[in-house]
């Protein structure tokens, strides 16, 4: 009887949660709560304007199967705005998105945080439910607290994933930088200008840094001068090595100083910096490798050395 009562209580809790979610959606979708947006208010006055060419319009991204994405998009945007008000840090999000090679879109990132938090909440709910079924005991406060903690963990993990993606991309760019700099130095030594050397290197190489240089060339072709376009590269990445690289090219272009020697020196500096970072990382790993030696192997060795003597003394006594 106790197991049957626990099963019925668990079923009632799940049905109550589903009913509460359905009632919340119904109340949120009432006409009194649907405020017209600016687009809805302006649409009657702009209905006769010619439609733009479909060749210039970008394809709308899919928002989930069976139209659920379109249905839940307004609610996800509202929850994302709540997260933005609570957490803040929109400039930091934009900067990390640019460092990760993505478009600066804070709203999309907040929506991703909402989805990650929802998945975390579902995982916490399922885990707590399984534990409750195995113990045949359901604690509603523990269920709610675990779900809220998992939701917060999902939101934090999405933010951490963006930071990790930005750091990994910058590490790849630093690995590519010496080769790119030497290729640019060879092209400049062969008699090409800065723009021609960049075009040649971008055509012959592939990678994160090459993609950023292609973006700089596109900005230059769109009307910006080359120093301004390269300064945008330094602003997007935030790496000191690339900032010095951009400063060297800008000074060489504006003042006519030898560019090849500057690029070779910067490539050598980056290699030396990578070697120093590798040595520092090796030192940290060496300290971590000493931990199992000190806390595992050494106590066992001391035990094997001392235990026979202690046993012999006990036998003599």
TrEMBL record:
What GO cellular component entries does it have? plasma membrane
Q: Which residues form the signal peptide?
A: none
Per the record, membrane topology reads: Multi-pass membrane protein
Q: Where are the transmembrane segments?
A: 12-32, 114-132, 138-157, 287-307
Q: Which UniProt keywords apply?
A: Cell membrane, Membrane, Transmembrane, Transmembrane helix
Recorded superkingdom = Bacteria
Where is this protein localized, as stated in its record?
Cell membrane
Q: Where is the Type II secretion system protein GspF domain?
A: 181-305
Q: What is its main location?
A: membrane
- Stated name of the protein: Tight adherence protein C
Q: Which species does this protein come from?
A: Terracoccus luteus
């Amino acid at each position: 009887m106790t197991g049957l009562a626990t099963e019925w209580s668990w079923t009632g809790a799940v049905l109550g949660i589903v009913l509460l979610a359905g009632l919340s959606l119904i109340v949120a979708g009432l006409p009194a709560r649907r405020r017209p947006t600016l687009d809805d208010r302006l649409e009657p006055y702009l209905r006769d304007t010619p439609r733009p060419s479909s060749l210039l319009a970008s394809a709308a991204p899919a928002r989930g199967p069976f139209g659920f994405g379109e249905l839940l998009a307004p609610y996800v945007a509202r929850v994302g705005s709540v997260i933005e008000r609570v957490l803040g840090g929109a400039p930091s999000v934009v900067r990390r998105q640019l460092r990760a090679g993505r478009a600066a879109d804070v709203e999309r990132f907040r929506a991703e945080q909402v989805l990650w938090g929802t998945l975390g909440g579902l995982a916490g709910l399922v885990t707590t439910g399984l534990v409750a079924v195995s113990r045949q005991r359901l604690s509603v406060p523990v269920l709610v607290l675990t779900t809220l903690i998992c939701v917060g963990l999902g939101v934090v993990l999405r933010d951490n994933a963006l930071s990790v993606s930005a750091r990994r991309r910058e590490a790849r760019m630093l690995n590519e930088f010496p080769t790119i700099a030497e290729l640019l130095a060879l092209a400049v030594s062969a008699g090409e200008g800065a723009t021609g050397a960049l075009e040649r290197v971008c055509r012959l190489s592939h990678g994160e840094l090459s993609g950023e240089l292609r973006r700089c060339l596109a900005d230059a072709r769109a009307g910006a001068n080359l120093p301004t376009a390269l300064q945008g590269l330094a602003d997007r990445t935030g790496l000191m090595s690339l900032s010095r690289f951009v400063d060297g090219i800008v000074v060489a272009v504006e003042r006519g100083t030898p560019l090849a020697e500057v690029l070779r020196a910067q490539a050598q500096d980056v290699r030396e910096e990578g070697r120093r970072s590798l040595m520092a990382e090796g030192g940290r790993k060496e300290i971590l490798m000493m931990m199992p030696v000190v806390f595992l192997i050494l106590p066992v060795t001391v035990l094997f050395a001392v235990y026979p003597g202690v046993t012999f003394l006990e036998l003599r006594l």
